[in-house]
Design goal:
about 100 residues, about 80% helix, mainly alpha, 2 helices
C-alpha cells in the first residue's frame, strides 16, 4: 500500500482491498451453504435408511401392537426430520 506524503493510505488501494475481502467472504459463504446442503442430503439419506429398516422390522413382528408402535414411531421420525431438513434448506437458500 502506498502512502501519500502525510502517511495516509491511498483511498483507491483501500477500496480494492475491501472489494477483495468482500469477494472472499461471498465465496466462503457460498461454499459453506453448498457444504451445508450436501450434509443435509446425507442426513436425509441416513434417516430414510433408518426409517425403512424400522418399518421392515415392524412388519416382521407377530404382535399387532408392536407393529403399530414401530410404524407410528417411524412415521414420527420421518415427519420431524422432514420438517427439520426443510427448515434448514430454507435457511441455506437451497429450497425444499
Amino acid at each position: 500500500m502506498t502512502n501519500n506524503p502525510v502517511g495516509i493510505p491511498d483511498p483507491a488501494e483501500i477500496e480494492q482491498t475491501v472489494a477483495r475481502i468482500r469477494q472472499m467472504n461471498e465465496q466462503l459463504i457460498a461454499q459453506s451453504k453448498d457444504a451445508g446442503i450436501v450434509s443435509l442430503d446425507a442426513y436425509e439419506r441416513a434417516l430414510d435408511s433408518m426409517v425403512k429398516l424400522q418399518a421392515e422390522t415392524a412388519g416382521a413382528s407377530q404382535l399387532e401392537w408392536v407393529n403399530a408402535l414401530a410404524t407410528a414411531h417411524a412415521r414420527y421420525v420421518q415427519d420431524v426430520s422432514k420438517a427439520y431438513t426443510d427448515a434448514a434448506r430454507n435457511l441455506l437458500g437451497g429450497g425444499g
